[in-house]
């Protein structure tokens, strides 16, 4: 029996798996679709990340979609990036009229979140 939930020692196990997609080269102003399929059937969310060009770059979250929910694109990118919901085992990122600062390597990731408690 678990004591009062607010006093319970809850923790979260979050596992994130990255995988790359096929290379594409597009020019500024062009549009493209990137698609990715889950590798594990138990994943609860899928994400798009961009690694900008440059030696000191860090991964930037672009979009996320929960298994049973709507996809969310980061606010500053919503004008020209669209993400599909997870459809079956697939997610798609649409880049419309690419800007120079969209340059980089895009990665798809899947995650599994487990809430651990008593």
TrEMBL record:
Q: Which GO terms describe its biological process?
A: cell surface receptor signaling pathway; immune system process
Protein name (database record): Ig-like domain-containing protein
Segments spanning the bilayer are: none
Where is it found, in Gene Ontology cellular component terms?
plasma membrane
* Source species of the chain: Otus sunia (Oriental scops-owl)
The UniProt entry, under Pfam families, shows: V-set
Which keywords accompany this UniProt record?
Immunity, Signal
- Give the matching InterPro entries: Ig-like_dom, Ig-like_dom_sf, Ig-like_fold, Ig_V-set, TCR_beta_variable
